Amino acid sequence: xxxxxxxxxxxxxxxxxxxxxxxxxxxxxxxxxxxxxxxxxxxxxxxxxxxxxxxxxxxxxxxxxxxxxxxxxxxxxxxxxxxxxxxxxxxxxxxxxxxxxxxxxxxxxxxxxxxxxxxxxxxxxxxxxxxxxxxxxxxxxxxxxxxxxxxxxxxxxxxxxxxxxxxxxxxxxxxxxxxxxxxxxxxxxxxxxxxxxxxxxxxxxxxxxxxxxxxxxxxxxxxxxxxxxxxxxxxxxxxxxxxxxxxxxxxxxxxxxxxxxxxxxxxxxxxxxxxxxxxxxxxxxxxxxxxxxxxxxxxxxxxxxxxxxxxxxxxxxxxxxxxxxxxxxxxxxxxxxxxxxxxxxxxxxxxxxxxxxxxxxxx
Amino acid sequence: xxxxxxxxxxxxxxxxxxxxxxxxxxxxxxxxxxxxxxxxxxxxxxxxxxxxxxxxxxxxxxxxxxxxxxxxxxxxxxxxxxxxxxxxxxxxxxxxxxxxxxxxxxxxxxxxxxxxxxxxxxxxxxxxxxxxxxxxxxxxxxxxxxxxxxxxxxxxxxxxxxxxxxxxxxxxxxxxxxxxxxxxxxxxxxxxxxxxxxxxxxxxxxxxxxxxxxxxxxxxxxxxxxxxxxxxxxxxxxxxxxxxxxxxxxxxxxxxxxxxxxxxxxxxxxxxxxxxxxxxxxxxxxxxxxxxxxxxxxxxxxxxxxxxxxxxxxxxxxxxxxxxxxxxxxxxxxxxxxxxxxxxxxxxxxxxxxxxxx
Lengths: 363, 358
Hints:
The complex is a heterodimer.
Chain A: E1 2-7, H1 13-38, H2 42-51, H3 57-82, H4 90-107, H5 117-143, H6 147-167, H7 201-219, H8 221-231, H9 233-238, H10 243-270, H11 281-291, H12 296-320, H13 324-346, E2 347-352, H14 354-362
Helix pairs in contact in A: 1-2, 1-13, 2-12, 3-7, 3-8, 3-10, 3-11, 3-12, 4-5, 4-6, 4-10, 4-11, 5-6, 5-10, 7-8, 7-12, 11-12, 12-13
Chain B: H1 2-23, E1 27-32, H2 42-57, E2 61-66, H3 73-84, E3 89-92, H4 98-107, E4 112-116, E5 125-130, H5 132-146, E6 151-156, H6 161-177, E7 182-187, H7 194-206, E8 211-214, H8 220-227, E9 231-236, E10 247-253, H9 256-268, E11 275-278, E12 285-287, H10 295-309, H11 338-342
Parallel strand pairs in B: 1-2, 1-3, 3-4, 4-5, 5-11, 6-7, 6-8, 8-9, 9-10
Antiparallel strand pairs in B: 10-12
């Protein structure tokens, strides 16, 4: 006897729409049991996780701040993945973007450089991210090297390069040898949108990116080409679409967005370049891209949702005095149900009895 | 369905208000931890201090902690979350929280902040740290006595003054016993990563070191030294159970008395922004029992500890000679002054390695 996962012949759109709700429902049920076992009030936990963060302006801002880099990177990755190009190295492109943009900030520090500094930083970061992403793309197209491996390995190169810069040439001369640049000047800082909060211009840029991606995929020939090459490569070839060109293009766009996200994070919430500027955004964004089903609006929702679990997790730790591990388990359960529900819409389990099949085959 | 939802909502409101009322009259004290509370090193010692604080003043205060908070963009939010949750005194227990703590402190002028091991202060932000180099000096004496190969292995975290002054103090002490003593240094570039720390320990032993010293937080290096039959010093906490035949001593971070004093000041309304940098005499840290060494070495260590505590012995007694062979300017009379030690970015003579970034 064997359990196999088999594709459903047809899928119901209604089920697809309510699937996330089913997942959240199942999570809540599991969580109530879990918290009851731990002797904590499940209602309080539910409040801390889902309701408190959504009911005050501060937490909403923080959710947007946390989601901004995730959404920007995930949008770029979704274009790659739709076109069957597997960019796993967004983390590296994020770091290289941060480094390139910071170069201008560091070099203009203490000078009377004007308002051009920030736009120049953003442009340079995007360009650097794109160029960095082109390395694995060109290696794939020219030499057939697996872009999954090369893009991933370049993450460590970027990480160590950043490390070298902040420990060596760019180190804050007044920072007691600590590995960080000096705080950026105001002209090199992403402006805040609301006084006293942390919401910054980057969130608006992320929304524009989402809108642009939605238009690209929904309304343009290029978008059709991307989806076509990914979904039906043979048909696309007959249609005259060049898959290699698309690998180059999607990698470049995705690298540019990751690089832009990197400099926005550094010139925004962090304020200076240091090691550890990314708690794994480039990798978490892969989850966000798939959680959002490679759809721009879906990615926006998924990014905000993941950010909510982070903020809610912290508030639960504070409000309920539960250890971090429990909040992590909770995040894991949530993701598990979302993905499980998604899979079960498209697939179903079936028990296969090999013996009977063999008998039928020979008889 | 609708009824259930209403009941749920009512329950939530009720639960929320009950929780708020019972905690309203107690002083709320928050902690931000770098590692998990079970790291058995740096964060664990802060957690022990928090528990001591609760034991002492538990009827007047309510404590909350956030663990495993990375020193990146998330730190500022975590600190602000504690401030928003009504914590009036917040301890941020790692160097990398310096700028985030300062930013939040500016936004919450009525909340008091205590930042460990940093150098930026504000009217509502204090700093506190310990003169660990004193303990390193004692370890240097023991290491030079106990080493057969004359090579010490040192696992550094980051090449910052706190760590560099520890290496220098170790070497200055060791040179008084064995002028030709050598030290091999590996920078782990992390405070806590058991895998990397273990690799560093293995590499150091392979390079001939027979005493392992560390400025990282996990007991991994102690375990490796124990497996390979070498000797080692613990870090932050008592690590003897990871190397009963290996640990010579350990520098124990004992934050409890400081935390209790600061919370009492907050309760009395006498809290002021300060810079506390305590040595052996202030109980900011302690030495674990001297073990796995002959009695004469133990006696020497205890004598050195007594002399340092009494202020008779200063690890950075002038002249301190740098790698370039020149004596460093002596700003503190007969020893280097606090500023020179807090900003130390040079190696002393006898360390044949290059300080990263120099």
